[in-house]
Amino acid sequence: MRYNFEGRSAGRVEGGGHREGEINQRDVGASKKSSVATTRKLRPRSYARNSRRGRTTIIVPRPRRCSRWEPPPCQALPQLPRCRRHALLSLASGLEVAELELLQTSPLAAVTAPWLGPAQAELPIAWYAGVVAEETESLQPSRRLRGQVSGPCLRGNSAWGRYLHAAASRFRAVFLSPRFDPLPPCREVQSALAKLVRQLARFGLQIWVQTRGVMLAEFREALRLCKAQVRVTVALATLDRELSRALEPGAAPPALRLSQLQWLLEEGISTQVTIAPLVPELTDTPENLLPVLSALRTMGWRRATFGYLLLDPLADWQHPSLVPAHWGKSLAELYEAGSLRQYEVQTWARCLAQRERQRRYARLLTWATELGFELRPSNLADPDFRSPLMSRACQAALLWPD
Length: 402
Known about the structure:
By secondary structure, the chain is of the alpha/beta class.
């Protein structure tokens, strides 16, 4: 093909070619395809735009409790509470940490435990009464635990005294509690928990309490007497009383939790704050979180942890006391794309999808930075710290090493 100085192609005259000044459309099409292919190779693909285009917006309706929640009956069980190694806290803290579950069932789940849905509010309060089988004064730690190498071992006469002595010789801290909140709305349970705190402190153990319940006078007195060995984590996710009544029946109102935080600071007790459990599209919005961060900053807090809600795979959303009736279906759709993570031995939890969770993490950190507040994901609430492929045999070996 010949080219003239005007930039037009001079077609071939012989062989049925095109005339002077005409452009071969087949050559133009081939050049366009090559230029497009080159552009695709040079320009990286934008996954964020494609993921945003395919994302569907899910609006979770605001639930409201149409009837007053009544505390369920309380039942005392004669068994001893279970106490075993908490693998996650042991790895994160570098200490041997035990988890002690004082309750068998409770309407108030732990802050980082999988939620059973609104039906959990109907569970009775069943607690292990073996911890109060004998008085605190009858439990004496051995001289070896006091730092002496030789000497007789003065243990309690009951089974709980021997059990507590064995735990004190192995662990350095006790976490209360992994499955249910240690402070349910029951005076008997809190009285037993106060005695348990004094017993654990008598054996030289550290007591880590994570709660969102009401602290009664007897439990506060136990914290004040053993404040050198106690660390309390208070969960606060919203300042809206109506939303708290719908999502956390049996928990302390937000205003009371702020006053309890103030009391802990005045008594000099080691205290932490966690903004959990966050419910997507309900408590992780700027209208809900900015007042919480502002109230904590006014009290003198500059850092806190946060974590999203974990759902039990068998959660039931239909409950007659909450309106609208379809509010839980949209929340279940948000967690539908999430994976199942192993929370405990033979216990699974469903979490948000990883991309969705990271997107919401970035948004929360941006809001906190604008207020001069430091937020970080909680080790207990973040599912990325838990292995989804860990078999039961590996989990049992991790919990009970040789």
